[in-house]
Amino acid sequence: METNYTQCLIIGSGPAGYTAAIYASRAALNPVLYEGLQPGGQLTTTTVIENFPGYPEGVDANQLMGDMRAQAVNLGAEVRSGYVTAVDLSQRPFRVTVDETDTILAETLIIATGATAKYLGLPSEDKYRGMGVSACATCDGFFYRGKDVAVVGGGDTACEEASYLAHLCRKVYMIVRRNVLRASKAMQERVLQTENIEILWECQTQEVLGDANGVNGVRLVRKSGEVFEKPIDGFFLAIGHHPQSDLFKEWIDTDENGYILTDGKSSRTNVEGVFAAGDVQDPQYRQAIAAAGSGCRAALDAERFILSKK
Ligand code: NDP
């Protein structure tokens, strides 16, 4: 039977959440973890992870997340499906509402809700979302085999998505607003050496074009003022992410971009007993291994907090 009380509630099922669950289980905190809308987190929208230590040949992202989940469960964590819809952090135990109906009380809370993709904010982008507009090449690239597509952005994500799409698509345009790529040198090299990737430098998107069948082009404007169009079938966003902290803002301090603020090297937030781990508090590193490390810290902080109250 599901309990409605836990010493440690973890919200989020990415590397931060599962690692926190592994450590909290071993600390005998009997953690409960809610998986949210995307079990496994952002990583499940990618394919092979080559930079997670311990996998010399790389590892399938879904496999990695499945293994982390299994490890947490084997150690005693209770992993539940469910989406947290409200929190009351005014007193301990904290009161957390799941799927708008169920309530669970928690002595400590670890927020590991991650981040979601940003969009440009164009009405046409909204109109064709799911009809050619996507923020995840590895999820949707399959549908554009042999076609022409565009990727917006010049960071590591954009380069990675463009490289991935280049294997599937005939042509990949990268729409880059400056005359440089923000991405790491290695990713830049990969993109520049891929024949069917063309970078459209100093270009911004004016409009995503389409009809009843979905996207069929994009209208761009160069820094020089020149407006031109490219026929494409898929339009992929890779311009960064929003931290998923809205639910907690009434209680928890964030920076101007919504990233949860933590105390020094710890995972402590401004509310005693509430800790944050992973991308929701990390605008800088945003890597699976970094998130896993911060999940570990959050569980250790939660354990110490519980001990200090005994
Ligand atoms: P970044 O913030 O690094 O890059 C965002 C890109 O989108 C930039 O080129 C930016 O342009 C552009 N951009 C932002 N807003 C707009 C807009 N409104 N219109 C047009 N272009 C826009 O985000 P990423 O998601 O690429 O990366 C985030 C972090 O994750 C980074 O630290 C990155 O290194 C890391 N990462 C690492 C990977 C790996 O190691 N395997 C893979 C993916 C990400 P501008 O440069 O002009 O600001």
What features would you describe in this structure?
There is one protein chain. This protein has 310 residues and is an alpha/beta fold. It folds into 2 domains: 3-116 and 241-308, 3-Layer(bba) Sandwich (FAD/NAD(P)-binding domain); 119-237, FAD/NAD(P)-binding domain. Helices cover 25% and strands 28% of the residues. It has 7 helices and 19 strands. The protein has helices at 15-26, 61-74, 123-127, 137-140, 156-168, 185-192, 288-308, and strands spanning 5-11, 32-34, 48-49, 59-60, 78-80, 84-88, 94-98, 102-111, 115-117, 133-134, 148-152, 171-175, 197-200, 203-211, 214-222, 227-230, 234-237, 241-243, 274-276. Strands 1, 2, 5, 6, 7, 8 and 19 form a 7-stranded mixed beta sheet that branches. Strands 10-17-11-12-13 form a 5-stranded parallel beta sheet, with helices on one face. β14 and β15 form a beta hairpin. α1 (15-26) runs parallel beside α2, α1 (15-26) runs parallel beside α7 (288-308) and α5 (156-168) runs parallel beside α6 (185-192). The two termini are 27 Å apart. 43% of the residues are buried. The mean pLDDT is 94. NADPH dihydro-nicotinamide-adenine-dinucleotide phosphate is lined by residues 51, 120, 152-158, 160, 177-178, 182, 238-240, 286.
Order of helices and strands: EHEEEHEEEEEHEHEHEHEEEEEEEH
Overall mean pLDDT? 94
Low-pLDDT stretches are none
Number of strands: 19
> How much strand content do the residues show?
25-35%
Net shape: elongated
Instruction: Just name the CATH architecture of the largest domain.
Output: 3-Layer(bba) Sandwich
CATH superfamily of the largest domain: FAD/NAD(P)-binding domain
CATH topology of the largest domain: FAD/NAD(P)-binding domain
Count of all domains: 2
- The first-to-last residue Cα distance is 27 Å
Associated small molecules? NADPH dihydro-nicotinamide-adenine-dinucleotide phosphate
- H/I helix tally: 7
Content-based structural category: alpha/beta
Helix content: 10-25%
Radius of gyration: 21 Å
